[in-house]
């Protein structure tokens, strides 16, 4: 059995998409399966020639052999899903669980105006209102939707069967630890628990069936929407440092701060992390761009990594050095 779960360590947008697409190609999983909230997530993936953005499908789709699955805890917007399936030509290997909840027009409308949008800064994707209806037991499920018939499967059963047969399963989380409904900066959080345990529950993977938990941190912290961001830099300083980013789903400017060691430590605890994936090292240290070995990094970059390992007591095993899927240092 080899299951690895990848989750965000800060407020989402840590670069999980890139880490997952690398692991999907390198580790050759039989299944890449998504837990997490819904199409409020936006993952950006880049291969040699092209940039891809996904909101519903697992970010591991660049591996053409892997089955792509979505667990029953994830709410689906069928329009977004159909569009991505067509765009990436993955109809034959996409499987969504019978019991995934369905986002309808009423949900996106409720999410695009009023308190959720204005106070919380929600993504407007309908994810929160759909999860509220799920809690009220009124939400429709995927098995009731005709257009989803070709993709319906017992994802929970398939994933557990694969694990029983020692196949590799790559489990993909969305958002980040401090956007968790239980463990985040409530009320400025998403509508689910998005720590490793929550992601496993979304799919139906029991707590003893996880081999590795990789928490992904970006080399600095960003946050979209409202809520506390300690030591937040002013917008001009963010631009000056070259840390300026725009949200994948919302197009909003992300707020930013320096790497937060205290927050990182807590994320390690909440997720029982065994490994750390560190992204965008090249943004912090431009001389590290596109490097593929630890030795090739500058002393400053090396000591930054050592400082993270010392503070968290967890090894940094993957280091992103550029946007491309192979701009990575693999120390596993
Ligand atoms: P909601 O999940 O759309 O309800 O948004 C709640 C909060 O979580 C807002 O501050 C969003 O900006 C944030 N959020 C939701 N999903 C993501 C994500 O994938 N990345 C970063 N922030 C997110
Ligand atoms: Mg994102």
Describe the structure.
- The structure is a single chain.
- Helix 3 (105-112) crosses helix 5 (127-135).
- This protein has eleven helices and 16 strands.
- With 332 residues, it is an alpha/beta fold.
- The longest helix is centred in the last third of the chain and has 14 residues, at 299-312.
- It has one domain (2-102, 135-330): Adenylosuccinate Synthetase, subunit A, domain 1 (Adenylosuccinate Synthetase, Chain A, domain 1), CATH 3.40.440.
- Helices cover 30% and strands 20% of the residues.
- The strands form four sheets. The protein has a ten-stranded mixed sheet, with helices on both faces. A two-stranded antiparallel ribbon has the order 3-4. Strands 6-8 form a two-stranded parallel ribbon.
- It has helices at 16-26, 78-88, 105-112, 114-120, 127-135, 155-164, 196-203, 235-240, 261-271, 281-284, 299-312, and strands at residues 2-8, 31-34, 43-46, 51-54, 67-70, 75-76, 94-97, 101-102, 152-153, 168-172, 212-218, 220-223, 255-258, 275-279, 316-320, 328-330.
- Magnesium ion is lined by residues 12-13, 42-43, 248.
């Amino acid at each position: 059995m080899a299951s690895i779960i990848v989750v965000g360590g800060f407020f989402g947008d840590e670069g999980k998409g890139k880490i997952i697409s690398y692991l999907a190609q390198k580790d050759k999983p039989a299944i890449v399966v998504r837990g997490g909230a819904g199409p409020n997530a936006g993952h950006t993936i880049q291969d040699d020639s092209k940039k891809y953005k996904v909101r519903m499908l697992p970010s591991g789709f660049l591996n053409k052999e892997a089955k792509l699955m979505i667990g029953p805890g994830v709410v689906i917007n069928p329009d977004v899903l159909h569009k991505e399936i067509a765009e990436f030509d993955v109809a034959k290997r996409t499987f969504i669980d019978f019991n995934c909840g369905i986002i309808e027009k009423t949900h996106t409308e409720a999410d695009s105006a009023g308190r959720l949008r204005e106070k919380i800064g929600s993504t407007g994707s309908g994810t929160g209102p759909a999860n509220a209806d799920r809690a009220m037991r009124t939400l429709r499920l995927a098995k009731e939707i005709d257009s989803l018939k070709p993709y319906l499967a017992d994802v929970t059963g398939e994933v557990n069967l694969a694990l029983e047969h020692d196949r590799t399963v790559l489990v993909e989380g969305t958002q980040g630890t401090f956007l968790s409904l239980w463990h985040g900066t409530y009320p400025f959080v998403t509508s689910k628990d998005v720590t490793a345990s929550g992601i496993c529950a979304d799919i139906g993977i029991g707590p003893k069936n996880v081999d590795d938990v990789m928490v992904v941190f970006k080399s600095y912290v960003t946050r979209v929407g409202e809520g506390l961001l300690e030591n937040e830099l002013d917008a001009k300083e963010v631009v000056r440092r070259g840390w300026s980013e725009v949200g994948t789903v919302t197009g909003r400017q992300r707020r930013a701060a320096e790497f937060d060691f205290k927050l990182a430590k807590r994320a390690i605890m909440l997720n029982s992390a065994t490994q750390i994936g560190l992204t965008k090292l090249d943004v912090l240290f431009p001389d590290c761009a596109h490097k593929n070995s630890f030795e090739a990094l500058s002393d400053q970059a090396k000591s930054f990594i050592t400082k993270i390992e010392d503070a968290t007591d967890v090894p940094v095993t993957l280091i992103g050095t550029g946007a491309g899927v192979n701009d990575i240092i693999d120390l596993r």
